[in-house]
Amino acid sequence: MSYGVAIGxxxxxxxxxxxxxxxxSRTISAFFYIGILVSTWYGxxxxxxxxxxxxxxxxxxxLMPPQYHLFPSQPEDAMRLGxxxxxxxxxxxxxxxxxxxxxxxxxxxxxxxxENAEQLRMVLEINNDxxxxxxxxxxxxxxxxxxxxxxxxxPCGYHSLDAEGKFIxxxxxxxxxxxxxxxxxxxxxxxxxxxxxxxxVFQENFPQFKQQGWINNLEFEIxxxxxxxxxxxxxxxxxxxxxxxxLMSHSTIFDISDRKCSAxxxxxxxxxxxxxxxxxxxLNRDYNYQIVNQTYLDWYNKxxxxxxxxxxxxILGQQFFESFIQPRIDKCLTGENSQxxxxxxxxxxxxxxxxxxxxxxxxxxxxxxxVIVSLRDLTRLKQAEQQLEFQAVIARNMAEGVCLVRxxxxxxxxxxxxxEQMFGYGCGELNFQHVSILNYATQSISAExxxxxxxxxxxxxxxxxxxxHNVKKDGTPFWCRATASVFQHPEYGDVLVAVxxxxxxxxxxEDALRQSEEKFRQLAENxxxxxxxxNIQTQQILYISPAFETIWQRxxxxxxQSFSAWLNAIHPDDRPLVDLAFQEQVKxxxxxxxxxxxxxDGSIRWIRDRAFPIKxxxxxxxxxxxxxxxxxxxxxxxxxxTEFISIVSHELRTPLTAxxxxxxxxxxxxxxxxxDKFKRMIEIAAIDSDRLVRLVNDILxxxxxxxxxxxxxxxxxxxxxxxxxxxxxxxALAKEQNIKFDVRPSNADVWAAADAIIQTLTNLLGNAIKxxxxxxxxxxxxxxxxxxxxxxxxDQGRGIPSDKLEAIFGRFQQIDATDSRIKGGTGLGLAxxxxxxxxxxxxxxxxxxxxxxxxxxxxxxxxxxxxxIRGENNDL
Length: 876
Hints:
The protein is α+β, with helices and mostly antiparallel strands. It contains 28 helices and 27 strands. Strands 2-1-5-4-3 form a five-stranded antiparallel beta sheet, sandwiched between helices. It has a five-stranded antiparallel beta sheet with strand order 7-6-10-9-8, with helices on both faces. A five-stranded antiparallel beta sheet has the order 12-11-15-14-13, sandwiched between helices. A hairpin with a 5-residue loop joins strand 11 and strand 12 (about 410-415). It is flat, with a radius of gyration of 59 Å.
């Protein structure tokens, strides 16, 4: 029953407040405080506490925005609710203590009436009651102090004004906002701390507040003692006496400066966005409109309701959205700005030229939540640009000067600005001048003669077009193309209307073109490659240079008359390749083909034919030109290179195969118990490894020599010293066959790279030893000539066939195919010798008799300090 009273008290307070809402003050706490007081008086502290809880929920749910929600949305509402709870608890606590004291006093009175005889006991009980009351008062004072601390240190300001609008109470928070002490602010007019505009607001609302008893969310701009200002939001409640006369106000104020500043900036942005001529929208990641300004709505004849919350595809069409807009929005959502300009054709609207910019919309944390789209209508600007371009085209093409010449006396009666500018005269300066001052005169023909001839021609035919040599005011001659006709003027009678167009530059270009064509003709006719040009539509040869006759050995006239004459010269095996190239030319105008031709004498030549397109102003291919080169010699080089690679591959593969076979047999272990055969396999592998190393070294040496990367440091060298060093290097090899050397010394000096010549001598001596029988003699001698020193190395070997004497100096050349295996050579030694000798400016050759022996010769230049060389220099 008691809890029903508590809930009922809160409900009655709520019903009374809602029922009397229009008649009583909006002070939400008055009826509920009465309900708490009644509940506590009726049922004690616990029942009052229930009423406090129920009243708090009722106020929050029914009376505070947002209504019918349990939690307030504004900080000031939450603070008001908190203050209500604190005051309600204090009322509950005080009332419960007073109720308890009353009950104790009542009980004491009953005991006094029943036990008059027990006075001492009564005194003791009275003392006890006084002690309890003192304790209650101490508790009340403690709550009052806590309430004062809460009041002064609250995050919001509190103050009370009297009926005249003066401060009679203020908390510490508000004092800090104002910068005054409490003594300075008390009894000061509230108007004195307001700005001018806020004073007017206060004066308009304070009388109404005193009458109705409440006011909410009234905004003022207060002034700090130092002159700075801040915005506040005020909620006030009027305190009245029993007669309804205003006593004082209780007001709560909250600092809203930041919100006001943000709101002001937001209003500025809204004003700017709403009034700019650009269309501005904000789209979320689902392509839905979040913000749209009026300009955009006007363009599409839509209302804000029809656009906001809808997708772009609904407004602009699904196809246009998917094909054009969505890819750009998706790109922007990744953080990339984009901008483009385009003509748009909207339904039921004329075309618009728009500049569209997509900018990522980033939130405070930096994440992209949407896209800002800015659209600028550049239609008029574009149309103006097009009009200006059109006018510029007309101006460029209307480069003519116009003049009117009176027929009776040949005087100029009118010249347009272009004509005056063309001849270098000022405005009106030509008027009534004789027209002959414009004509260029020579020693043989006067200006008057030229003018008379032109006028006669025009009057005879009625109209004439001609080229005339004119002269400017400063004496500069120039050429004009003119059209003149007779016209009946109302004031001047018959006049000649002459339209002049300067063609000096055209004349110059024509002369330059003729000279250029002549240079091109000379160039095309003197280059070794064949320059040709064809018409892509008719497949007709338009031009072919004379080099065709040299390479093809056919006449240029024959191929110009019949395209098949060129096709018939192509080797039958290469015709399919040429047909494919021809098809590519038709499509792209380009091709690069190698093919063979057969000359009338039956010889075959390799041709590289490259084509490229010639396009007109529209980018269409109208001609195909090309160069055909004779690459027969290059093909031979390529063939030699291919053969060289093939031979090197074979020569490298042979020793590698032998090494791999020997290693494979050793790996199987079949010779583990046969040391002799095991050792033989190792010897085979070592021999072939040495051969492989020699081959690689010889190839590298030859490549360095022939590529020019081997730098030969030449000095003065004694020929005998070079021979002795080479002989010492092969002495061990000669002793194996008991071969001896017959070295015939000489005091000749040579200009040579010593190491390279020793290598040459070593190769030649090594070959002599390999192909000489045991106990043989090898003779080495030097012979001085006029400018050269001749070296000779003679052996007693098997000899060299005469048809091999030149071939042996080529790469990988052996007299017998088995020599590389039996003798151990690489086939590159003599090629290296020839390269070294030729880089010294000398020559190398061989002479031989089968069964008798061979002699190798090479020459080197004499030393620069040789007596013969010095003598020749002296003669010079």
